[in-house]
Structures are given as C-alpha cells and as structure tokens.
Design goal:
Shape: globular
Order of helices and strands: HHEEHEHHHEEHHHEHHHHH
Mean pLDDT: 80
Number of strands: 6
C-alpha cells in the first residue's frame, strides 16, 4: 500500500473527530507535497538566484552553463519559429497565440497539452524532452539576447518573432512577478526593484540592451516585430501578421477561434495556458497571479511622479537613436 493510500485509510478508520482531523490533514499535506514536487517540473532547488552567462543573467534553478553552451550549435530547421521576448513582455500571450495558430487539436479543444509543451523554452529545462526529436514545424520561446540564440538563425533559417512591450509596464509586471519566484530573494520595495531593473540586475538583464541589441541586428534574421500593446488592442491584426510571416493559412472561422481563445480574459482561465499547474517550488501562485492584468498603462498605478520622471530621462538617453513609438496608456491610439 502506498503512503497516500495508507493515509487515506487512516483517515477513514479514525474513531474520534480529533483523530480524523489529524489523519486527513496528513493526507492533505501528502497530496500537496506530491504536487509541489512533480518530477515533470524538477528544478535544482539547491541553486538559487541567477548566474551570468556571457553578459546575460539566467535563472540558476532552471538552467546551467552547460545547457547554455549547447544552444549555439542547436540545429535549426527552416520552419522553426522562435518567440523572443524580454521577461514580462507577453511571452505566455504569444505562446497561446502560436499554439492556437499551429495546432488544430489545441484550437478545437481536442488536445490539452499545455503551452509550455507546445512552445518550450530553449534556455530553461522543464523536462520537455529532447527538442531535436520534436516534429516539424517546431515552436520555441526564449528571453535570450541576439548573440546567444542558435547560430543557425543568423543564416536566416527559421524565423524570429520579437514581442515588444512598453518598458514601464514591463517594470511593473516584473516587480510583482518576482515575488512569485521562491528561488529568488524578492526586492522589498518598488523603488529598489526599479533600480535593479534599470541597471540590468534582474534575470533577463537590461531591457534597453535586450531590445537595442535585437533591433540593431534584426537584419541578420528572418525577423518580425510585434507589440504587446498591439495584441491587446487589435489581436486579429497581429494574428494576420503572424500568419503572413509564417505562411500559415487559417479560415475565417479558425481565425475567429484563435482571436477568441487568445483574448486575455479567456487565456487567463485556460488551464493549458495560465501556468497555474506549475508546482509551488517553481511558481508560487499564492503570491499573486502569473497572468495578472494584461493591460496597458498599469505603471501609472505604481510609479510615483519622481520615479516616472527619472525613468523618462534614462529612456530618452538610451533610446534616442531607436525609432520606436510605444503606447503608454490603454486609451492611446495606435
């Protein structure tokens, strides 16, 4: 008899109310333990924080220098598609959109495979198996800078879809998200986190360097730039762009289905996409929601006037030569 079966039997056989409560509490604890230690999502709990790899900060509990070394020579196929984002810029949103576009079974509800499996990470190990054995077309996602992605992508084999989000909302979302990561020591205040973010002392490194790097070298790749704000305000137009870029053909009904299911309010309740299945040793959902608001302009609810002015000054210095226009508020026109 297994431990769980034994605890369940003790719960049923207990004669007193107190004994039943103790036995059932033991069973509940055992069940919770089995969830939080799901071997499918094993992580190195003895490795906390981040490590630096060629100037880029990586989560130590989910990656190793050896895994990072292997990425450069990862063999690219012509129909591979990589979603590239800085953290908290719409990665899960994009995983959901791509899963719905590419997988008919996922789109019609016949397949319940989570987006984490549909569009796995290349720099983080979630025990998704050997990516070399995945059937084509393969979808991947990454937070890596341009100089750390597989070398084959620079030969314009495969495709890159870079998802950009305004950096103030990234900062705000990142601040709340960090609290959910038990293997990081959370920053005590927004002010302190903002300093870390501006200095690139968070995993994913510096937002300015990440986007500038990809923007300056985009011509080395088969590259499409889309924005989180565009996805929020006009998702259908983004799906059309992606389909044109990747050569995917969807009927009007299929397009309607993608747009409906990928809408933030629906995605947030979709257990295949909302990351609520993740065990608490990877993502502590008691500290917040992984898919928090999915809006534009939430930074206004957090940043002080002084913080915003300081951010604007740094932004102007770092981005003066980059011709990009952001939507900073949900009510702004595109």
């Amino acid at each position: 008899m297994s431990c769980a079966q034994l605890s369940r039997q003790n719960c049923l056989n207990s004669h007193t109310t107190e004994d039943k409560l103790k036995a059932c509490a033991s069973l509940a604890t055992l069940k919770m333990s089995s969830v939080t230690q799901d071997p499918k999502y094993e992580i190195a709990e003895n490795r906390r924080g981040t490590f630096e790899y060629k100037g880029f900060r990586i989560l130590a509990s989910l990656s190793t220098p050896e895994l990072m070394d292997s990425i450069e020579d990862f063999e690219i196929r012509d129909d591979d598609v990589f979603i590239v984002t800085y953290p908290k810029s719409g990665t899960v949103f994009s995983q959901q959109v791509m899963s719905l576009i590419y997988n008919e079974g996922y789109r019609n509800g016949a397949e319940n495979t989570e987006t984490l499996h549909q569009v796995p990470w290349i720099e983080y190990d979630f025990n998704m198996g050997d990516p070399k054995t995945r059937s084509s077309p393969r979808l991947f996602c990454t937070h890596l800078p341009y100089y750390l992605v597989p070398r084959g992508l620079t030969c314009k084999r495969g495709k890159i879809i870079y998802v950009l989000r305004n950096p103030k909302d990234v900062l705000t979302s990142f601040y709340y998200f960090e609290k959910m990561l038990p293997y990081l020591d959370p920053t005590t205040s927004f002010e302190d986190f903002m300093e870390k973010y501006l200095k690139g002392e968070v995993f994913g490194g510096c937002w300015f360097e990440h986007f500038r790097g990809w923007h300056m070298h985009k011509d080395n790749f088969d590259f499409l730039l889309i924005s989180f704000e565009e996805m929020v305000k006009n998702l259908r137009s983004v799906v059309v762009k992606i389909c044109q870029f990747t050569g995917k053909h969807l009927s009007d009904l299929e397009m309607d289905s993608v747009v409906k299911q990928a809408a933030f309010k629906n995605m947030r309740s979709d257990t295949r996409a909302n990351y609520k299945h993740m065990p608490s040793n990877i993502l502590d959902n008691r500290q917040g929601s992984f898919l928090r608001k999915g809006t534009i302009g939430d930074w206004k609810n957090v940043m002080t006037i002084a913080q915003n002015e300081r951010f604007d000054k740094i932004y102007q210095e770092k981005m003066k030569d980059i011709p990009v226009k952001f939507i900073w508020d949900i009510n702004e026109d595109e």
